[in-house]
Amino acid sequence: MTLENTQVSGNARLVVGQVVSTKMDKTIVVRIERKVKHPLYKKYVRRFTKMYAHDPENTCCIGDIVKIQEGRPLSKLKCWRLIEVVKRQEQ
Predict the structure, then answer these.
(1) Cα–Cα distance between 86 and 62 in angstroms, integer?
(2) How high is the pLDDT of residue 2?
(3) Which is more confident, 39 or 90?
(4) What does the alpha-carbon distance between residue 66 and residue 72 come to, in Å, rounded to a whole number?
């Protein structure tokens, strides 16, 4: 899945990614994909980053496509907030 997934809104970044874990209370893990050009072979390679986001109502499920926004630190690893669920995973 390829998404153009980064926007800047004021000072806060908006990112679109896929939920990979909902095991924590009020927290989701979002996988962000980006493409990087290999320095030697000049081929584009997919790289992934996992970010922890705050989901206050526990509304997300694994596989959902979500939009998250950067904010103040909420815990040691969590400094992103859920803005909206772009697409629900079909069960």
Answers:
(1) 13
(2) 47
(3) 39
(4) 19
